[in-house]
Structure formats: structure tokens, C-alpha cells
Amino acid sequence: MGDILLSRNVRTAFRMRKDSPWKHLNRSFKTADLVIGNLEGAVGARSEAVDPTLDAPIFDIDSSDIAMLRKAGFGAVTIENNHSGDLGDAGRKRTMDLLRKNNVVPIDYEHSPRFFTLKNHVIAVLAVNVVRSRDGSKPVLPSVEFKQKLRLAKSMSDLVVISIHWGSELLEWPDKEQRKYAAWLVANGADIIIGSHPHVIQKPELIHGKPVYFSLGNHLFDQKYPETKEGLMAEIRIQSSTFSCNGWMTHTAPQSFYPKTTEHLNFFRNLPLNNHPLTIDGLRLWPVSSSVGNKLVLNAYENGRKKWSSHPMSIVTIATSKLDGSNDYLFTLEKHYSSLDQTYSLRPYVYSIGKIGIYARWRGSGLAWPLIDAQISPSDPTTIMVLHQGNSFLELDKTASKKRYAVYRWNGFGFSGISDTTAIAACKKWYDRP
């Protein structure tokens, strides 16, 4: 769904009527395996607003109204938009805690991707906001960090769905920035992009073969312009190896805030799924988003039967590779505390996989210099390409703009740096690409 408002006139309406704003959509919601919307605002009192003198609306949500989302059928909501920070960090945390308490998964930037298993398929959902918020937050795209999130999502799911808050309000076509972001997201692994913020519908398109719903418009809102009373619900249907993207048009009557479906539209059919499950030594690894911080649990399956579960892991990226030239290993980047630089930072890990569990072969440090990113070389599975900070562990300065490029080879006990200028040049070219 598009933008959902639970404050201002919408709140007044459902309090007076004492019914659900989604009562006309019960059938549509009940037949879906997963219903997701974009929740505008934060739980708390209006008096908690960040910079209350700012000339912008404040969307404060009453804590008792969050339960309506689950009762209506929502399984998850994205909370990356220019109003999720209206009440500061405390409001954002309160919103996430209440959503979890009501069995609605909150999808934010920090904890993206979130993984959902639906009828033998794994769906990864990531949320990002590029519209400046009241609290000043605005993640920058493109970024190495979001590339890592996309890489993790792509490696462990059949379908990568991006929820992005972008564009210009009331503009009925995508602007240049939206098209730039869409192309970058697709190039880095997005399968479906679902946009919000313009508050009007922007027609879906295929960008390099991937469906982009530039804007779904309003779903539950109190704006009065005729165009803002029309909404689009994205309908994604997954078959065995393909998916289709359709839509339900919704209309909200002039004196109402409750949407009703009006027309079903077919947009894009028979698009290929990833079908690149993470498999190692005959075991399929399924990700489960853990309730313990920002962590993943890996479940290993063989011939449809679960063999084991890992401990919660702070995985940032994951890949399989024959690091020694013959045996398969898991290579991960994880966030851990280290006394070396006294921070929670990225550390490379290498694991072996067995029939009864996962075994750490190497618990890495930051290698030679502080780490920004690392991944298996696409041309040599025994080496990793690494992007380092330009500083050192002795003189840490995370604001330093200088970077180092390095290539390391697995030696059976860890990684050794190599001085192959061709490999290092290829590493630099890889990381410097758009």
C-alpha cells in the first residue's frame, strides 16, 4: 500500500465511527500471504516533536491505534519516510516496539533487509527514505552500505523488494532523481521497487526489466485534492519460477478517508525470480530475521528437511566460495566489537558447513587496515577484493575520505595480502563503478 496516516483527520474519523478504516478491503487483505504498507508518523505526543517551530506537519500516532494495523491484516509496515522521525529517536523506537508487540514487523533502514518465508519462497524487503526529515535524517544513495544490504538480500532470497520514500509531492510523473535512484537500485540487485511520498499515483514502468511502482499515491490519508483521493495497491503474485506485478486501484470518497477498491490492473507478467538460493554442500540456507538485535539465524535444509539452525549472527553480507580451490566455504562480513579499534565494525569471517552445524574457520580482524567492504573476487574464488579506509588502526579517523584497495588470498588459516597490480586495479575498478 501507499502512504498510511493514523493522525489528524483520519484519527478523528475512525474514533467517531468506531470502525476500521480498512473495512472495505477485508477480502483483499485476507487472501494475501503478506500485506505491507508505509506508515507515516511516529508513536507519541505531539509535544515531543523535533524542532516544533519548523513549518511542516507533525504526524503523531496514539499508541492504542497501532493494534488496528494487525487487526486489519498488515503483517509488516515500512517506517522509512520523512515523518518517521517527527518525534525523534524515542518516537521511532516506541513505534517499532509497539509494532512488534502487535505482531507487525517494522521495516526500517537499519534493520534492512527483512526476510519473509512465503510458501517455500524467501522474500527480502528493504526500506529507505531519501526525503529530508524533520530530524534531519536522509540516507545518502548511492552508498557502499546500501550495496551491502542489497547484496545480502540478493544472495539469500528469491525476490528483492525495495520500499523507497522519494520524489516530489503532487507530481504525477517521476522526477529525474527517482529515475536515477531506480536505475542504481536495479543495477545493484533490486527486483521490485515500490515508491511513496508524492501522494499521487505515478504510473509503473519497467526499468532494465524490473518493475518500478514510482508512487502508489495515498492509501489512507486526509488530503483533499481529487488526485490524492486515488490510490494504487501493488499486487505481487509469485508462481514457481516467475512473478507478476499487478495492481488494485482504490478510491476514497470526498467526505471519507476510507479507501475502496475500484479496478484491477495487469502491469507486468511472467518475470523471472532470482532462483539463486544459497546452497553449500547440498544444504539450502534459509535466513530468518532474528528478534535479537540486527541479526540473522541461518536454517539449513536438506531435501526439504531442517538439519540445524545457527546462532544469531550479525551478518552484513554472505557468499559461498571455494577459497582453497576445492572445498566450499561461507565468507561473511559481520559487525562485532574489537579491542583493536574499540568499535563495532565490519569483520570478515570464514565458516565450514557440516550436516550438524556451522563452524568458524577464521574469525577475522579488519585485515591490514580498517574495513569498509569485502567480497569474493568474481574472477578468482580463492581471493577477496577489499575496500579499506585510508587511515590505520593506530590513527582512526572515520571522516577520512581517502580509501585503499587491496586483494587477499586464502591461505588455509586466514588471508594474506597479494601484490598483483592487475588484481588490485580490477578491485579498484569494481569499487569505483557507479
Q: What is the count of distinct domains?
A: 2
Fraction of residues in helix = 10-25%
Mean pLDDT: 92
CA radius of gyration: 23 Å
State the oligomer: single chain
Architecture per CATH nomenclature, i.e. the level-2 architecture of the largest domain: 4-Layer Sandwich
Give a brief rundown of this model.
The chain is α/β, with parallel strands linked by helices and 434 residues long. 17% of the residues lie in helices and 39% in strands.
3D architecture notes:
The protein is α/β, with parallel strands linked by helices and 434 residues long. Helix content is 17%, strand content 39%. The protein has seven helices and 30 strands. The strands form eight sheets. It has a six-stranded mixed β-sheet with strand order 7-8-9-10-13-12. A hairpin with a 4-residue loop joins strand 24 and strand 25 (343-353). The two termini are 31 Å apart. The model has no long low-confidence stretch (mean pLDDT 92).
